[in-house]
Amino acid sequence: MINKEIIIIIIIFIIFILFSNNVKENYENNKEVVVITCNFGNYDLNDNDIRKLNNYNLFDWVYFSDNKIEDKGYLNINDNLFPDSINILNNDKDRMKSKFYKFQSINFNFIKDYKYIIWMDASIIIENNNFVNDIVSIIKNNLDIDIFLFEHYKRNSILEEYLECKDYDKYKNQNLKKQIEFYYSKGLDDNKLFESGFLIYKNNDKIINMMNDWWKETINYGYQCQISLPYVLYTNKINFKLLNEDNFVKGNLNGSIWINKLFGRVKITHNSTKYK
Question: In DSSP terms, which residues pair with 268 in a beta bridge?
């Protein structure tokens, strides 16, 4: 009998092919970096006008959503690729859809020619107008790095993250305790926790495998992706660099403002009471 997971993967690849043929014909990939974000169920506010950024057109900017958004410089793609066969945790399809695009857009045909992909949560509002130039500098000075990411602003391990969020409504009925126990059994040294809302990564085989594994962990355990991130980095032997090491401060969450040198003062603009 064919494994259910194999069937899901086959369905996903079929959808990728069909989708790629339907991307706007006038969308030409002639840049090396694409920034991807998504917003389903109007969870976040679309307040990030990237046209104000210096040299914003050095990158392509893609915004996946289930509703047409106001034009603020993005290519807005409304197509729904989320497989109906995926188990919906806590009846929260919008959150599962967001994780799908976060982890699986690297497999889309119209993404494959980019050298770097940047994932940015839709809640992040960039106030540093030199953001694009800073990213270009980071990449050029670290060509051997697979992925760039921030340490968590407050917590230092997946255990601390579990203890903080285990009682959140959005994580009820998810196997978080079983998840971290499994990671420990596989030899994970639990001494780092990362922010997963902003990532810069190469579009290479190692990262593709990591993203596929990250999606599998989400299907198996739940959508608390900051718990699974250290594990998939570890198992795929990813060469990562903390953005903090380039003097972009670890961050200080002060109410709804995340102070960070790379972004400026980052506004976290959730449009929902579902955050907890």
Answer: 124
**Between the CA of residue 39 and those of 139, 219, 270, what are the distances in Å?**
27, 20, 10
Give the separation between CA 174 and CA 188, rounded to whole angstroms.
Answer: 20
What are the residue ranges spanned by the domains of the chain? 4-275
Cβ burial, residue 2 (10 Å; 0-12/13-18/19+):
exposed
Query: b or e along 12-34 (b: 16 or more beta carbons within 10 Å of the residue's beta carbon)?
Result: beebbeebeeebeeeeeeeeebb
Per-residue pLDDT tens digits for 133-175: 989 999 999 999 999 998 887 899 999 999 998 888 878 778 8
Residue type, 95: R
According to CATH, the topology of domain 4-275 is Spore Coat Polysaccharide Biosynthesis Protein SpsA; Chain A (3.90.550)
List, for residues 12-35, the tens digit of each pLDDT value. Answer: 555 555 544 444 433 455 799 999
Alpha helices in the chain, H assignment, sequence order? 4-20, 93-104, 131-140, 158-165, 176-185, 205-221, 225-235
pLDDT for 161: 94
